[in-house]
């Protein structure tokens, strides 16, 4: 287990005394191996289970999720247009991210189902004790990391799903959350549909409940009004074709065009190994009509940027031959902890 001040990354490594020997190793599933080796290069992974969902249908779902996201987030729409214009209409997504309530079946598993059905594999769990969160990320099926296509029609993104550990919240706020998830009924079985439609699976919340949750957890308040909507998409900067493929240049490019970056921990978030570099804009806000006839501005979503550097063992590969599997894989608690702040009021109200 690896710990940091911001959170915990749960990882397991093989040792000389590993139980993966003899007959036991033959019974170990691919998903289990992926969980035990969360950051190994994906090109060396075994084939995942055959998808149980047609690819054309699956990509249509992703496209619908993206359309809802872009309709609510003008900054993300403008950034994507800007980058496409500068980069010859070629953009690859590094990952999509979702937020959930970890209670009564409304957590990670509810959103993960469609991705697992399409052949995604579970990789690594990350924990954020201070935020009362945990997350899992999922890798797309083998063969879907290529460079053909653009956007949702291009390489399939990794999936990052987090959940609020509701039982760690104060009793009054647990009661508020359960009040809404109870009205959802079996809505948790249709999380992907809700995301694609941009609809909540529970009743429209009261502003007083939103305010109450936000005082303890801004994540909880965000999820109450946004539900299963895409929290962010991430541009893979190293897959761009122009000079802005370097994320430091990319950040300057974004700021020079008038967009504000999340400054929590600095504009650029860097993993301890120096191989995963991330940044993000600050979330847009739009009016929300609450059930008690109050209309107030609430944070929506943001857009993230990520550069994955080549792993040391592949540093001698010619640049034109470097593939995604030669680059740093996975996520980092310290980076993600700061990226979460893109929807915080502190960032939204920051003047400089």
From TrEMBL:
EC number of this enzyme: 1.13.11.93
Co-factor requirement: Fe(2+)
Under Gene Ontology molecular function, one entry of this record is: dioxygenase activity
Q: SMART domains this protein is in? A: DUF1338
UniProt keywords, alphabetically: Dioxygenase, Iron, Oxidoreductase
Q: Which domain of life is it from?
A: Eukaryota
**Has keyword Iron?**
yes
**Do you know which Pfam families this protein is assigned to?**
HGLS
InterPro entries assigned: HGLS
Q: What class of enzyme is it?
A: oxidoreductase
**What family, per the record?**
Belongs to the 2-oxoadipate dioxygenase/decarboxylase family.
Q: What is this protein called?
A: 2-oxoadipate dioxygenase/decarboxylase
Could you tell me which species this protein originates from? Acorus calamus (Sweet flag)
């Amino acid at each position: 287990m690896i710990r940091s001040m911001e959170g915990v990354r749960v990882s397991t490594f093989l040792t000389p005394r590993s139980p993966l020997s003899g007959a036991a190793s033959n019974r170990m599933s691919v998903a289990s191996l992926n969980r035990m080796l969360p950051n190994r290069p994906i090109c060396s992974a075994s084939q995942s289970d055959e998808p149980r969902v047609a690819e054309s249908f699956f990509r249509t779902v992703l496209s619908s999720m993206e359309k809802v996201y872009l309709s609510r987030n003008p900054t993300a729409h403008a950034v994507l247009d800007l980058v496409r214009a500068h980069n010859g209409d070629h953009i690859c997504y590094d990952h999509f991210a979702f937020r959930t309530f970890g209670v009564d079946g409304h957590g990670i598993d509810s959103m993960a189902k469609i991705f697992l059905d399409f052949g995604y594999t579970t990789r690594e769990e990350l924990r954020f004790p201070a935020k009362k969160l945990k997350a899992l990320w999922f890798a797309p099926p083998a063969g879907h990391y290529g460079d053909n296509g653009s956007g949702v029609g291009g390489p399939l993104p990794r999936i990052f799903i987090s959940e609020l550990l509701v039982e760690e919240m104060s009793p009054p706020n647990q009661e508020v959350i359960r009040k809404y998830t109870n009205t959802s009924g079996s809505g948790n079985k249709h999380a992907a549909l809700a995301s694609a439609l941009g609809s909540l699976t529970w009743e429209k919340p009261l502003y007083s409940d939103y305010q109450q949750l936000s005082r303890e957890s801004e994540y909880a308040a965000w999820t109450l009004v946004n539900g299963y909507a895409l929290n962010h998409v991430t541009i893979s900067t190293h897959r761009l074709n122009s000079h802005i493929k370097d994320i430091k240049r990319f950040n300057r490019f974004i700021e020079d065009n008038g967009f504000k970056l999340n400054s929590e921990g600095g504009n650029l978030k860097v993993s301890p190994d120096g191989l995963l570099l991330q940044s993000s804009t600050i979330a847009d806000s739009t009016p929300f009509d609450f059930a008690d006839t109050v209309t107030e501005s609430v944070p929506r979503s943001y857009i993230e940027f990520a550069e994955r550097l080549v792993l040391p063992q592949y540093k001698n590969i010619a640049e034109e031959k470097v593939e995604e599997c030669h680059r740093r894989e996975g996520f980092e608690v310290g980076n993600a902890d700061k990226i979460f702040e893109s929807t915080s009021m502190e960032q939204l109200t920051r003047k400089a």
